Amino acid sequence: MRLRGPILAAALVFALAGCGTKPAVRIENAWVRPVSAGGTTAGYLTLVNDSPDSLVLVGVEAPAAGMAMMHETVREGGRATMREAPRLVVAPHTRLRFAPGGAHLMLSNALVELAEGDTTGITLRLADGGTLHATAKVRP
Amino acid sequence: MRTPIPRPGLALAALLLAAAAALAPVGCAPQKAGFAMDTDAPDVAIRGPHGTSVDFAHPDGRVSVVTFGYTSCPDVCPTTLADWKRLRKRLGAGADHVRFVFVSVDYRNDTPEVADAFAKNFDPSFTGALLDSALYGEVLQPFKAAASYESTPDSSMTAVSHTDYTYLVDERGRIATAYQFATKPDAIARDVRVLLAAGRERASRGS
Question: Do B74 and A67 touch (CB under 8 A)?
Answer without folding.
Answer: no
